[in-house]
Amino acid sequence: MAQRYDLVIVGMGSAGMVAAEFASTLDLRVAIVERARVGGDCLWTGCVPSKALLASAKVAHHMRNADEFGMQAVEPVVDRAAVWNRIRAVQQQIADTDDDPARFTAMGIDVVLGDARLTDGNHVTVDDDIIETRFVLLCTGSRPAVPDIPGLADVGFLTSEDVFELTAPPANFVNIGGGPIAVEMVQAFTRLGIPTTLLQRGPRVLPRDDPSLVDLLVGALRAEGVDLQVDVETERVAVEHGRKVVYASQGGEARRWEADELLVAVGRVPNVEGLGLEDLGIGVGPRGITVDDRGRTVVSSVYACGDVVGRHLFTHAAAYEGVRAVRDMFFPGKGKVTAMVPWCTFTDPELAHAGLTEAEARERHGDDIEVWRQDLIHNDRARADGATTGAVIVVTHRRRLVGAHILAPAAGEMIHEFALAITEGHKLDALAGFMHVYPTVSTAIGQLAGEAAFEKAEKLRWLVRREK
Q1: pLDDT of residue 458
Q2: Are the C-beta atoms of residues 268 and 183 closer than 8 Å to each other?
Q3: Is it true that 152-268 and 349-456 share their CATH fold?
Q4: Which three-class secondary structure state does DSSP give residue 257?
């Protein structure tokens, strides 16, 4: 006899876990199916291990540059195996607490291990068992994309899925790809004394971010010794004398780079295989499962969210979409999973982004925009911390915020104020009405808002009460 649930969630990554926790508060019978490890990409191959790696790399960088702060600089002795052991320890700590299946069982959620396949819109087969449900939420995530480069499969390579499982990381890397994951990793490896060359196909790394801030970041990375190569057309890879060699062209000239190991970071592909979507007529495009702005597939009882739909490949976006999908299933009215999504590349300094770039704003609003900029060289906290590389850039349309871009320490923490202001349709000068703690890097936001407020006040100076 089939088991009956209100909701079956497929995938216990960021989207699935948060959606399940929310659904458990609604007095619903919920089951969540996982075929591998609880925690998904974020815990095992993405956010958590990469940030643990970055933390170790930052310590090494500070030791190497301690003379800038009045202390003796020392070249750190990096135990790469110990760094990787620390990464795994952080992962296990989370797996044993917040991402422990027992925590979800205690909420009243049934955790089912196995491979899930949709039989129809109200039945999910897990191995040999059939689960009946009112709704299904697909949260199967994504995996690293593998480019079609001759010789790559034969030579072998690492991706974010296996690089953190190493016990003895190689002495050096060549990295293929120039997106956020690649840039973060290359800086971290370089700081840890693992020379790494990044090969980017296009003319610039991080092409979705503000170009002027990317240029500042690239300059800072290169000053640290990070080897960034752009306009590289990779042609083939091979093994020569025990080394892995990338043959390519750059600016019309033949080039080659070699290293002990290759790292591939060229994007993600959705995990849609084996779910039975084709049999139900559920569409799948290049970026993932096709859904409407409520998160529904063409089968109204089947929703999908997170990486598997390919909107925004971020943990926070996946969690948001999961909660909004559950809200749409069980509450009156219609919910939407679409929203303005902030993001951050966790280099040092961090590069954060919310809303439109200047180019996107001009395309949408013409020349009726303004661009406001505050460089960190004018920020007292940045000066005190020796971290003046960066800026805060705000794009407004008729004084309302439509985009914000930050290159700064902890930019990922700072961007939320702008994200809220953009979502709520606030004008830049409205932010001057909120006090920003001094001295903080966030004071730069208050300074920009103050400029807008002062400019507005100047236009209204005829209203000033003057002494008679």
Answers
A1: 61
A2: no
A3: no
A4: strand
Whether the Cβ atoms of residue 188 and residue 219 lie closer than 8 Å to each other: no
Query: Beta 288-289 vs 302-304: how paired, if at all?
Result: unpaired
**pLDDT at res. 465:** 54
- Cα gap 52→90, rounded to integer Å: 7
Q: Which residue has the higher pLDDT, 462 or 448?
A: 448
Residues 404/415, Cβ–Cβ less than 8 Å: yes
Are the CB atoms for 431 and 449 separated by under 8 Å?
yes
Sheet holding 173-176, edge to edge: 227-229, 196-199, 173-176, 261-264
Q: What is the pLDDT of residue 332?
A: 87
CA distance 297 to 308: 12
Contacts of 300 (CB under 8 A, 6+ apart): 121
DSSP 202: S
- Amino acid sitting at position 17: M
What was the pLDDT predicted at 1? 41
E strand intervals along 346-428: 350-355, 369-375, 391-397, 400-408
> What is the value of pTM for the model shown?
0.93
**Domain extent listing, the chain:** 3-143+269-330, 152-268, 349-456
Architecture, CATH, for domain 349-456: 2-Layer Sandwich (3.30)
CB 441 within 8 A of CB 468: no
Contact 414, 352 (CB under 8 A): yes
- Cα Rg, the chain, nearest whole Å: 25
Contact between residue 301 and residue 132 where contact means Cβ atoms under 8 Å apart: no
> How far apart are alpha carbons 88 and 83 in whole angstroms?
9
Nearest-angstrom CA–CA distance, 355 and 339:
10
Tokens of 393: 């850039």
Q: How confident is the model over 43-75, as pLDDT tens digits?
A: 999 999 999 999 999 999 999 999 999 999 999
CB 428 within 8 A of CB 360: no
Q: Which fold has domain 152-268?
A: FAD/NAD(P)-binding domain (3.50.50)
- For residue range 83-132, list pLDDT tens digits in order: 999 999 999 999 999 999 999 999 999 999 999 999 999 999 999 899 99
Q: Which two tokens stand for residue 134?
A: 């009112």
One-letter amino acid for residue 328 of the chain? D
Contact 132, 3 (CB under 8 A): yes
Structure tokens at 360: 């996107």
Q: Please tell me the chain's helix, strand, coil percentages from 3-state DSSP, rounded to the nearest 5.
A: 35, 25, 35
Q: Which CATH class is domain 3-143+269-330?
A: alpha beta
Question: 337 pLDDT band (50/70/90 cuts)?
Answer: confident
Q: What is the pLDDT of residue 334?
A: 78
Give me the mean pLDDT over the 250-273 stretch.
96
Per-residue DSSP letters for 347-364?
A: SSSEEEEEE--HHHHHHH
